[in-house]
Amino acid sequence: PAEIVGTWTRFRGKRHLDESLFSVGFGDGGGGPTEGMIERAGALRDFPVVPEVRFGVVEEFFERARKHVTQESIPVWVGEMHLELHRGTLTTQGRVKYLHRRAERDLVAAETLAAVSRLAGGPEPGSMESEWRIVLRNEFHDILPGSSIREVNAEAASELEGVVQRAARSIDDGMKELGRLVSTPGDRPALLAFNPDLSERPLQIEFPGDVHGAQRVEGGCVLTDGRPIGPLEARTVAGVEAPADISVSTDHLENEFVRVELDDAGSLTRVVDKRAGREVLADRGNQLWAFVDKPREWDAWDIDASYMSSGEEIVADGSIDVVEQGPHRVAVRIARRFRHSEIVQDVRLWSNSPRIEFKTRLEWGDRRWLLKARFPLAIRAGVASFESAFGVVERPTHRNTSWQAAQFEVAGHRFADLSEPGYGVALLNDGKYGHHVMGNELGISLLRSPIYPDPLADEGIHEFTYALFPHRGNWYEGGVLAAAEDLNRPLLCRPIEIAKETSWQPLRVRGLGVGLAALKALEDGGGLVLRCYEPQGARGEVAIDLPEGWEMGAELNLLEEPIGAPELAFTPFQVRSWLVSRGGS
After folding, report:
1. In the predicted structure, residue 108 carries a pLDDT above the cut 90
2. Are 190 and 158 in contact, with CB atoms under 8 Å apart?
3. How many angstroms separate the Cα of 570 from the Cα of each of 417, 441, 495, 533, 559?
4. How many CB atoms lie within 10 A of CB 81?
5. Angle (CA) 193 196 197, round 5°
6. How would DSSP label each residue in 78-145?
7. Which one, out of 83, 178, 224, 299, has a CA that is 20 to 30 A from the CA of 72?
8. Is the pTM value of this prediction over 0.70?
């Protein structure tokens, strides 16, 4: 019989089981082949007609696959292979998913900060491998999908909280060292701000203490400046430009970029982009809806296609209050109640950005509901863009075919975007993954509360932020990637005393716009690794400027092994890594 094999993707060591497509009961690969699977493989060996099942090693499988590809014409699938199942895993166990995002972004920022200090003449940065191992272990199936029992979720949350705390300490130590290296000591109170990204950002600082000249808010202070902060720039800020006019009341927020109007239900009735002179919304924005969430099977795993037929909007209970009055940021607080749950949102607007933030605190006490935020937009587009790892996925906004209809709930990382020629609107988040797009409506899943296998899944307190970001051009031209990273990993800052303001920018990447994947210590020591990726499907070259005394070394693979001279040209969605070392080392 013809040989039909599949790859056993999760295996112990280097052993794996080639899985027949026709064999039954081999499980989902959660922990590698079991004794029962091995017995079934032996029993099937002599069955007539059944495709061959055999044991092998990973290297042999891929060697056969490479020969097969070069010798025969094989079918090619272009685009996403959408799994028409398990859509609920994008949202279930929201606290654990949020902690994963926090841990990932904070570790990248801590590594970047330590590497930049090294470029400024500081010590060799240490490895954060032990912290990454904790994060990666907890990205195991079934932890990341949220389909584990309660004890597993509690342990994962505890371990990830530990990573976030240790990353925060590393960042604090790194900011002390960076301040020592790049500032001029004195007695003038200031803040040291650092941008851990390759994109320019508006200077927005939120700090838990009290800083002279800053605006007091709950839990600390906020500060803005009209001068943006550049990629990987460290800047001491003792005085800021006067913020542009900004205003707020219980029914509006406004700065020089946008005007936002609210109704008594807490939704947005208008968002006017003052730069483009156009309305952003086609109907009320930030509608919060609760949908009955009782899938026919796979409770923690799936969402039924018919879920929108049984929902209700959750409106404000009459409590809308101004809680921040500027001059750097304004905010109104909206309270909603749903059965045994409470939703409190601060709708916020910074003085120097069009980003409209929804800082959300849920105290959830209801079972088997799916909570969504919905934004009907004044945009007409055939596809929407959703961020994935090191790129984007485009998906249709219509339902012409059964395959398109199956995409009623889809994955997105830090943003989803709907753009027409010349203009678009993005929906950003700092820890959510489930989205929907239908016609002109973008939506994001905020929470679901299944009862199996964890009977108390997502009960309790959740805190997260999502945001609406109108922009010119497509998502990349409009700065959506930078705005999404800024929401996920805000500028690093620390109080400092200086003699005068200074700015230092150690590394510049010019040319084709690329994203920063890592700037970190070489795991085996002896230099730094700069890893960049092309995020939008373009191609071109970059030029890299380094501090005096530093030079580009070999290009590296993802195992940090040299693979040749440094190549600076990118193809669509390509990831490149280079060694950066002291001259002559």
Report:
1. yes
2. no
3. 24, 34, 39, 8, 19
4. 5
5. 125
6. -S----SS-GGGGTSSHHHHHHHHHHHHHHHHHHHHHHHHHHTT-PPPPP-HHHHHHHHHTTSTTTTT
7. 83
8. yes
